[in-house]
Amino acid sequence: MSTIAIVGAGPQLGQAIGRRFAAEGFDVALIARNRTTLQAVADELAHTGVRVEVFPADVTDRPALHAALAAAEERLGPIDVLEYSPAPGPADLRKAPLVEATKVTVDSVLAQLDLYLLGGVAAVEHVLPGMLERGSGTILVSSGAGSGPIIAPHVANVQIVTGGMRNWILNLHAALSDSGVYAAHVAIAAFIGQGGPDSQPETMADAYWRLHAERTEAELVIHDLPDDYLEKGLADKFVES
């Protein structure tokens, strides 16, 4: 039995990815900071016939993230697929606000490092040695498409960090050539669950499965933004009502 660890698992994309990989026989380890949210996702996947376990951890707490991944391996076996896609909530955005390109400061960039880049490095650092030893494995790291493929000046401090993460994963893809381990970056230019067909979690999860199954592309760009995406700003889930 294979295992996927979904870091940043939530009720939209994370849940859909879990359901898609479960349909292929994967056990599912769900990792995020909110146990209640994780359990709700796990309950939605309970009918899939595979093992689904929750491992609460905040990705900005790197020892806790390592411990959660280690616990997942102990309960479910080696992690064959790592999917990393945490996203901020309104409280995170109050603590570390988004900053547009002309107002970027050193502090505004440093505030974004833990969630996006350092959490991703920690997760990959944990699973990659075992994958290399086994000669197999998949690493899928997600960010907004402003990390490279599109321009999003209203979130420039985040894109400085995710641009670095994207560059690292593209280089990792090249470095892992012929190792049996595959890494790819997913650039999401969509309001998940709000836009057209390509923005729907189930459609996106199918694309993640194809990346894993075909193991050819270094990057997938999911582009389904409205023409007025700069005026629209953030997706609804990031804005407190």
From TrEMBL:
<dbReference type="InterPro" id="IPR036291">
    <property type="entry name" value="NAD(P)-bd_dom_sf"/>
</dbReference>
<protein>
    <submittedName>
        <fullName>SDR family NAD(P)-dependent oxidoreductase</fullName>
    </submittedName>
</protein>
<dbReference type="InterPro" id="IPR002347">
    <property type="entry name" value="SDR_fam"/>
</dbReference>
<dbReference type="Pfam" id="PF00106">
    <property type="entry name" value="adh_short"/>
</dbReference>
